[in-house]
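Friendly challenge for the regulars: who can give me the structure tokens for this chain first? No prize, just bragging rights.
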Amino acid sequence: MKIKQLKRWPLAIACALLIGVSAATTTVLAESSSITVRATVLNVRLGPGMSYGLMGQVQRGTKLTVIKQENSWDQVRLAVNKIGWVASWLVDQNEATTTSARTATVTAGANIRQYASTSAKVLGTAAAGDTLDVIYQEGNWTQIAYHNTAAWVSTSTISLTGKTVTLASPQQTQPQSQKAAQTVSAIKVTTNLAVNLRSAAGLNAPVVTQLPKNTTVTVLDQSSEWYKVQTADGKTGYLAAWTVTVPGTKAAKAATNLAEATIVLDPGHGGSDSGAESTSGKYEKTYTLQTAQAIGAALRAQGANVVFTRSSDTFVDLAPRPVVAEKDHADAFISVHFDSSANANEASGFTTYYYNAKKDMQLAKALNHAFDTNLSMTNRGVQFGNYEVIRNNTQPAVLLEMGYINSDKDFAHISSSTYQQQVASDVVKGLTAYFKAGNHQ
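First reply, four minutes later:
Bragging rights claimed.
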């Protein structure tokens, strides 16, 4: 993982560094705080992606103030101090607009995916010779217009034709009133875990409230994999379909042993995100993948169902990673990283991080105990970690920092297949003990 400050540093130094980072960030924003809309009409969305609902539109020539950027999307400030998201490739340039796209020919069979990730849901397929409408390209992934929404294909499977095509304007559907929706359907569903009720159909949409496990809500409408619901006290919002149990069905049963468990392994970083570096210039992303693959092989040998957030040296953004665990109803999510200190060779050891004590602590303790009894490296213990992949995870989740990559002593272990296999063996032992103790809920 990228450099973190050691806990023993004086508070004054840490504060000085934070002030420096803040100043640097302010400078960057000051230099590029304004963007100009080049598309004829630009949609403003609730989140950074075309799958998020529309909150309005702005016209060509409109100047917008940028708050932050994420995944080629700009969060901007609108009139009346509202905040929304716009596609960064549709501002300050004219290569694409909301009504036109480039065309491409499929050169090899391609999976059409919901996100720019090999672990994302497959929405459909395209055969060699098919024509696709290209909205945007970024490295290994190409965004296309697909069934009135946006999806992604691997750039290596297509070839641009040099031609353009006019896209149909997106259809706007007026939402049903709550009263009308309730008349049509009074189906009730029950949450099968503690879950966030959101203001729109998307995992990054603002949270309306939190609902405990076994909360019954009324379904007002359904769109794709999201339910629009109303709580008993009248609050409305959206829940992911996989977080609720529909009448007549049974909730997914928690695993009681490793052989019946689904484990999501998350090799940190990847692709353009190299992570931290060793003193010899070796990248963290290489060894997180090697270690996760060793863990995966050991778990599969025990009969577990193993799912990877990435299986090659490709970039996967942080937000989709916990989504994999949620959609696959994972019994455990394990993110693999290697730590880094501010100065080379000043820190050593492995740390097991959790975010939600109630949900994650027992998993963290079981794994850390298995490491403690077998690994020769210093055990820095179980600690709270505010990392997105475990913070936004609805399943039991931990983040492992299995040594300091810029410590020559630790790196000798990290880069060793013997150490990677030992970590894998210990994960099996830890998970076996975790399920045997009946900790998973």
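Residues 3-32, 93-98, 169-185 have pLDDT under 50 and may be disordered. Residues 263 and 306 are 5 Å apart (CA to CA). Your move, everyone else.
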